[in-house]
Automatic annotation (TrEMBL):
C2H2-type domain boundaries: 403-432
A biological-process GO annotation: rescue of stalled ribosome
Cellular component aspect of the GO annotation: RQC complex
Protein known as: DUF814 domain-containing protein
Source species: Geovibrio thiophilus
C-alpha cells in the first residue's frame, strides 16, 4: 500500500476510531487485528507480508499474546502517520489502578515485504514485534530496544516540492500514482496545481478511485473515476469479491479494452501511412539515378532544372529541384541511402501491421468473452490475472479440470472457457510440441491438442471443429481455424491474458461440432 493511500486511510480511521476502547489484539501469521468498542465492536486489520495494508475488518481474527494483554482496555487516543509515508502510529492510553496513565504505541511499518508492527511502552521500549523484518538495516530493532523509526527515503512531498518536476521524487508516490498524477497534469494542470489537487483529495475527499485495470488510487483522475468508500475498499483488500458485483468489473474491463482498441486502431493507421511512404522507395531511388546520370550536365546549376532520365524504352525529360549550396553527387548518395532504408523498412512495417492486427483480434476476443461471460467471478479472475502481469504460476499449479477436455483418437484436446483459462491453458499448461488451435480472425476458445500418437488429418479436422464450436461464428456453416505448434505462439510482453501472436501456421475450414458431437467426445 502506498503512502498517499495510507495517509487518507489514517485520516478516516482516526475520525472513526479515536476514543474507542481496545478489547483485544488478535495475531495471525501476517496480520495484527485490533478489536475496538465504541457504539458497538469494530475492528482494524494491519496486514504485513507481500501485500501490506491497513483497513477496517469485519472481525478480529487470530490468537492473543500474553505480552499484549496489558493493552486490553486502553483507549485509542489517535491514529496518525508520518505524512505521506508508510509509517502509521496508533497511540493508546491505559490507566493503571494507581491512577497513572501509561502511553503505548503500535508502530505499523507497512514498507513492502519488510513490513512489521512494533508495540512500545511508555518509555519507547519495544515490547512486541509481529515478525523479524527490519525495514532499516542501520538501526537496532528488537524486543527490549528503544524504538527508532525507519529512515524516510524521500525529502520532498505534496506540500514541499520546490524545484521538483517529477511526482516520482515525492514521498508517498509509486508508479501507479505517478502515472495518474501525470495524466491529471496533462489534462491542463501545472505540476504545483496537480500537487494541490491530490493533497486536497487526501484530506477532503473520502473516496477511493478504481482505475481501468481494477487497481485503487486515493484521488480521482481521467482514467480512475469510479469511486468506492473505505468500507468497500476494505472488502476489496480483504479479498471479498462481492463488493465488485453488479457489473462493475465488466464496465471496467470493457472500458479498458475499448481504449486498447482505439489505441491500436490509431497505431494501425499510422503504420499504414508509414508503409505507403516507404513503398515509394523506387521514386526516391530514381531521383538518385537521375542526379547520378546527369552530374556532368548539371555543372553547378541550382533550382529547378530538366534532366534526362534513361529508360529501356528511351529517354524521358524529368524536372528536379537542386537546392542551393547542395552538392549534386552528395545529394545522389543521400537519395540512394534513403531509398535503401525505405526499402528495408517495408518488410518490418508489414510485419508490425500484421502483429497489430493480431492485437486487435485479441482485443475483440477479450470484449467477446467479457460481454458473454458467465458471471462476475470470471471477470474478477481476469482482473486479478491482469494485475499479476507477466508473473505466471508454475505449471504444477495448473489443474486440467479448469479446462474443457475432449478425447480424440490421437490424444486429448483441452479448450479454455474464458480469457483467463485460455491464457493458463496456452502459457502455463501446454507443452512446446502440443498443437494449438484458434479460429481465424474471430474470437474463439484456444484449444491445445496433446497427442499420444502422431495426429492424422482427421484428428486435426476434429480439433478444429471443436475450436469452431467455441467461437463467435459457432452458428455458421463453415469456420476457418488456424493451427500450429504451441512453441510458435507467443504472448507479447505487457499484454493482458489471452493475447497471442503466432507464425508458421496452417489453416483448415470446418463445420463447427454440434452439441451432440461435443458430448460424445467429452472426457474427464
Amino acid at each position: 500500500m502506498d503512502g498517499l493511500t495510507l495517509t487518507k486511510i489514517v485520516r478516516l480511521l482516526n475520525a472513526e476510531f479515536a476514543g474507542s476502547k481496545l478489547n483485544r489484539i488478535g495475531l495471525t501469521d501476517d496480520s495484527m487485528y485490533l478489536s475496538l468498542y465504541s457504539d458497538g465492536v469494530k475492528c482494524i486489520r494491519i496486514r504485513c507480508g507481500d501485500s501490506p495494508a491497513l483497513f477496517p475488518a469485519d472481525r478480529c481474527d487470530g490468537s492473543q499474546s500474553d505480552r499484549l494483554e496489558a493493552l486490553s482496555g486502553a483507549t485509542l487516543k489517535s491514529v496518525d502517520c508520518r505524512k505521506y509515508d508508510r509509517l502509521v502510529r496508533f497511540t493508546l492510553l491505559k490507566r493503571r489502578p494507581s491512577g497513572k496513565v501509561i502511553q503505548y504505541r503500535l508502530m505499523a511499518e507497512l514498507i513492502g515485504r519488510m513490513s512489521n508492527v512494533a508495540v512500545t511502552d511508555g518509555e519507547g521500549t519495544v515490547l512486541f514485534l509481529l515478525n523479524k523484518s527490519n525495514a532499516d538495516a542501520d538501526r537496532a530493532f528488537g524486543i527490549g530496544e528503544k524504538y527508532a523509526a525507519p529512515k524516510a527515503n524521500k525529502r520532498l512531498n505534496l506540500e514541499n516540492h520546490e524545484n521538483c518536476g517529477s511526482f516520482a521524487e515525492l514521498a508517498g508516490f509509486y508508479p501507479l500514482t505517478v502515472k495518474h498524477a501525470e495524466k491529471l497534469k496533462m489534462s491542463g494542470f501545472s505540476f504545483a496545481e496537480t500537487c494541490m489537487y491530490i493533497n486536497s483529495s487526501l484530506f477532503e475527499d473520502d473516496g477511493f478511485y478504481i482505475t481501468e485495470n481494477g487497481k485503487v488510487i486515493p484521488f480521482k483522475s481521467p482514467e480512475a473515476e469510479e469511486s468506492v468508500e473505505l468500507g468497500q475498499y476494505a472488502r476489496i483488500l480483504s479479498g471479498d469479491a462481492e463488493v465488485r458485483k453488479s457489473g462493475a468489473a465488466k464496465k471496467r474491463l470493457l472500458r479498458f479494452y475499448e481504449k486498447q482498441r482505439k489505441k491500436y486502431t490509431a497505431l494501425t493507421l499510422e503504420l499504414e501511412k508509414e508503409l505507403s511512404d516507404a513503398s515509394a522507395w523506387k521514386d526516391t531511388y530514381e531521383k538518385g539515378v537521375l542526379l547520378r546520370d546527369n552530374l556532368a550536365e548539371i555543372d553547378g546549376r541550382t533550382g529547378e532544372t530538366e534532366l534526362n532520365f534513361y529508360t529501356e524504352s528511351g529517354v524521358e525529360m524529368r524536372r528536379f529541384m537542386i537546392p542551393e549550396g547542395e552538392n549534386p553527387s552528395a545529394l545522389a548518395g543521400k537519395l540512394f541511402r534513403k531509398a535503401a532504408k525505405m526499402e528495408r523498412s517495408v518488410f518490418r512495417i508489414e510485419e508490425r501491421i500484421k502483429e497489430i492486427e493480431q492485437f486487435l483480434e485479441g482485443i475483440e476476443e477479450q470484449i467477446y468473452f467479457i460481454e458473454n461471460s458467465a458471471g462476475e467471478e470470471e471477470l474478477l479472475a481476469l482482473e486479478d490475472e491482469m494485475r499479476r502481469g507477466d508473473r505466471i504460476k508454475t505449471k504444477q499449479e495448473i489443474k486440467q479440470k479448469q479446462f474443457m477436455c475432449f478425447q480424440l483418437p490421437c490424444g486429448k484436446a483441452y479448450a479454455g472457457r474464458n480469457s483467463v483459462t485460455n491464457h493458463r491453458l496456452v502459457f502455463q499448461f501446454a507443452k512446446p510440441e502440443d498443437y494449438w488451435f484458434h479460429a481465424q480472425k474471430i474470437p474463439s476458445a484456444h484449444l491445445i491438442l496433446r497427442c499420444e500418437t502422431q495426429p492424422d488429418e482427421e484428428d486435426i479436422l476434429k480439433a478444429a471443429a471443436i475450436t469452431a464450436a467455441f467461437s463467435k461464428h459457432k452458428g455458421e456453416a463453415k469456420v476457418t481455424v488456424d493451427y500450429t505448434r504451441k512453441k510458435h505462439v507467443k504472448k507479447p510482453k505487457g499484454t493482458p491474458p489471452g493475447f497471442v501472436i503466432y507464425h508458421k501456421f496452417g489453416s483448415v475450414t470446418v463445420q463447427p461440432s454440434s452439441e451432440e458431437e461435443l458430448g460424445s467426445l467429452k472426457a474427464d
